[in-house]
Amino acid sequence: MADIQNYSINFGPQHPAAHGVLRMVLELDGEVVVRADPHIGMLHRATEKLAETKTWIQALPYMDRLDYMSMVCNEHAYCRAIERMLGIEVPVRAQYIRVLFDEITRILNHLMFIGSHGLDVGAMTMMLYACREREDLMDCYEAVSGTRWHAAYYRPGGVYRDLPDGMPQYKESKWKNGAKLKKFNEARSGTFLDFLQDFVARFPKLLDDYETLLTDNRIWKQRLVDVGIVPPERALQLGFSGPMLRGSGFAWDLRKKQPYAVYDRLDFDIPVGRTGDCYDRYLVRMNEMRQSNRILQQCIDWLRANPGPVLSDNHKVAPPRRADMKSNMEGLIHHFKLCSEGVHVPEGQVYSAVEHPKGEFGVYVISDGANKPYRLKIRSSGYAHLSAMGEMARGHMIADVVALMGTIDIVFGEIDR
């Protein structure tokens, strides 16, 4: 009798768990994965090279489009790199606003993780719940930047503008009217911080609901427990960071270990796992949302009590106020030079990293003194995580590959730049 040979199949890009952009070649022995080989290149947009043809400010919106689930966290790393090269200070209120939106973004990212991961494994309700909560936080994006997705809200030297004094309200329609309309607008009748405070107050109960659905669910645990185990030493060798590293029991978080912005003034914990399997990484992200909620509350309290500037007063980096530009010749010149030429960054090189929701997101830039980057290189966490797929999937079943794709929490914009 002839020997049965291994055979290869394509996992994705059509498979829903491949998110439309990943082709992974699986070598199978029956239904057991012998080798998993990710093929990337279907989404390549040459972000790093495009940024080298734009001014420093024009390149900023590209950051939003890298990991499009964690928009302003990408902007934060890029702005910090420019600020370090320019040697400028960011106003404290702007730093608190940045932390506020970094943590809003972390919750947004993890909500999409738990929704899509649940959907891939078969828990459809989670996606509906996650999208419901995401709507409120996307409204926060819209309130400060005018858009719900790619905000381009951070600027070298601070943020584009201060938090608004009001929130948009729903208008009467055939779907919302009377008492229903009043209920929808109840949290929107105050300031931006009032709206966010309402979300922060009710979010822990919503997280409890998610955990009731999943954490002790027999099917959920059967799909995740002991799948894709990565010991802490091996996680370090593979270049893991963020929840993938903390899920293996390694308490590494840049917000604590290499503090930036005002994270050293805030009280929060670093959730860690025990065994480094898919289930631990799920629990770490769930606990991270609780910690982010704690940080949001502290930022809200501080921002209520401390008004102040939100953008640097160095007008060679940040534009003057429009009133100054229209009444002062020097302000007009600064405005014209910034809009026509952009910022001239001194010669040098710097690497700036932030604790992105998926791990360490770093931006390495080289400046030759011109008004655009000479070289720009992005360190994305997802690239290292996906490269470990072959090792994590070996010996597991085809169905486990879906759980592994979910636990990595891939977004291809940052992987295939």
Structure description:
The structure is a single chain. The strands form three sheets. This protein has a three-stranded antiparallel beta sheet. Strands 6-7-8 form a three-stranded antiparallel beta sheet. Helix 4 packs antiparallel against helix 12 (278-305). It has a single domain, classed as Cytochrome-c3 Hydrogenase, chain B. It is 49% helix and 11% strand. It is mainly alpha-helical and 417 residues long. It is built from 18 helices and eight strands. The mean pLDDT is 93.
Order of helices and strands: EEEHHHHHEEHHHHHHHHHEEEHHHH
Question: How would a textbook summarize the main sheet?
Answer: 3 strands, antiparallel
Number of domains: 1
CATH class: Mainly Alpha
What name goes with the CATH superfamily? Cytochrome-c3 Hydrogenase, chain B
Rounded Rg: 23 Å
Say how many strands there are.
8
What would CATH call the architecture?
Orthogonal Bundle
Class from helix and strand fractions: mainly alpha
CA-to-CA gap between the ends? 49 Å
Reconstruct the topology from this structure.
Blueprint: E1 7-11, E2 23-29, E3 32-39, H1 47-51, H2 60-64, H3 71-86, H4 92-121, H5 124-145, E4 154-155, E5 158-159, H6 178-185, H7 192-214, H8 218-224, H9 232-237, H10 243-246, H11 254-257, H12 278-305, H13 322-327, H14 329-340, E6 348-356, E7 359-367, E8 375-379, H15 381-387, H16 389-393, H17 398-408, H18 412-415
Antiparallel strand pairs: 1-2, 2-3, 4-5, 6-7, 7-8
Brief rundown of the structure:
The protein has 417 residues and is mostly helical.
